Amino acid sequence: MKKINTLFITVLILSLITMSCVSTKSETQSSLIADPTVDLSNAEIYNVNPKVVKEGTLMSISGAGFGNNPGVVNIGGVDVTEYLGWDDNFIWFNVPKGIQQEAEVQVGYEFSDSLIITAPENSVTVKWIIDANKTQDIIDNTFTKYGLNKAPQLKAPLHVKGQWSKGDETYGLKDEGWDGGSRQVMFNIPGTSQWVMEAVFTPEAIDSFGKSMMLFAIEDREDELRNLSQFESDYAFIIKKTWAASLGLSNDPGVKINKENSLITIQFPVE
Predict the structure, then answer these.
(1) For the chain, what is the HEC assignment?
(2) What is the pLDDT of residue 16?
(3) Which CATH architecture does the domain made up of 33-118 adopt?
(4) What are the pLDDT digits (tens) for 228-254?
(5) pLDDT of residue 168
(6) Of 128, 137, 199, 230, which has the maximum CB count within 10 A?
């Protein structure tokens, strides 16, 4: 009996070690580690978002010539060496510790036109999470309501468009219209149907909205199928109307940003 118990304990310990190794491996698969030898001399930076950040903020660099192998990105003297996603046109990562005010973003020999600003105290992060599969189910079930013969399909990538300024010095401040508002690409979490995006609003930006809500919309890449609106795709239009209705709003979804919460998470479908 003693030998059997000893054998059982030994097998159990080995099993736990094996499970631990497998778990650790799967948890690190989502992180891409930079290779400092990667040639980034052809890189071009088109845009960086958001322009106001905290440590850990989800940030994107859009451009061209990044290649498909992650190299080293530098922000104001701080190297970024771990990424959530990297391809020829987009780089995704969480902002590392130690970023100083008015930091330049460098990829290869290319520097961004915009400077990254470190958010002051009492700034608020707004995080959007869209489940594309569940969203498509909603669209599939409601497209006839809008007089369409065929349900519109997602054309990746998704974007969040909002009534806050995209300017370098005015980022996050209320913008009265949609034309001057921000439009930020979302990140598709690998292996899932979830798309995420973050924006950081300073106390000054929050105050600029006063008592009004900050309106926003979700857009996809489709530029041709605009049967329901000249301003957005049919896919985006149905999401906008469904989302606004679920929040008790008439035209566009919105959120009231206040300084009491450091993080506001907005999800669609609304749960």
Answers:
(1) CHHHHHHHHHHHHHHHHHHHHHHHHHHHCCCEECCCCCCCCCCEEEEEECCEECCCCEEEEEEECCCCCCCCEEECCEEECEECEECCCEEEEECCCCCCCCEEEEECCEEEEEEEEECCCCCEEEEEEEEHHHHHHHHHHHHHHHCCCCCCCCCCCCEEEEEEECCCCCCCCECCCCCCEEEEECEECCCCCEEEEEEEECHHHHHHCCCCCEEEEEECCCCCCCCCCCCCCHHHHHHHHHHHHHCCCCCCCEECCCCCCCEEEEEECCC
(2) 31
(3) Sandwich (2.60)
(4) 998 899 999 999 999 999 999 988 999
(5) 86
(6) 199
